[in-house]
Each structure stands twice: as structure tokens, then as C-alpha cells.
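B., you asked whether I could sanity-check this one before it goes into the benchmark set. Here's the sequence:
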Amino acid sequence: MNNTLTRRAVSQLATGTALAMTLGAALTLAASPAAAQSMDKEKCFGVALKGKNDCAAGPGTTCAGTSKVDYQGNAWAFVPKGTCEKTASPKSPNGMGQLAAFKEKA
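And here's what the prediction gave me:
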């Protein structure tokens, strides 16, 4: 009886350990795409079209999809790293996307 109890406890421990390892691996994989995305992308202000911005746009907006006008200076979109300042932004002071929020030109 004592031997059976020990085998059952070992079996339950092994099952619990396998479950914990599987859960840990799943959480790691779920976090990887976001980390890879942020490493390959940069926030670019003034390039998003109305309602197409990514999150945290600034005053007058709440989050993704809330920009009020095209090329809003405090609304950003993720773009491939290194391309922001080469992307057209008609309302930007220099006509290109910016790495920081700006006041739109008239």
C-alpha cells in the first residue's frame, strides 16, 4: 500500500511538472511576437490616417483607431524601423513622419 501511494504521488508530481512546463512554454511563445514586433518597428507620428492610428495617440484620443484626422501630429502608427522619417506626412513641419508628437502645420 505504501509503495502504491508513492507511485501515485510521483505520477501526480510528474503530471503537474509537465503541465507547468507546457504553460510556461506557451506564455513564452505568446510574448515573443510582441517583442519581435517592437524590435522591428518604431512609432511614427503624423503618418496614420483618420481612425487608423495605433495605441496611445495623445490628447483628444484614447487609443488605437481614435485619431480624428489624417496625419494627426499626436497620433502614431507602427512602421518598419528606419522608415518613419522617410514616410510622407503632409501636416508635419518638414513633410515627413516624426519620431515624436508635433503640432500640425495649417
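One thing to flag: Residues 2-40 form the longest helix (39 residues). Otherwise nothing jumped out at me.
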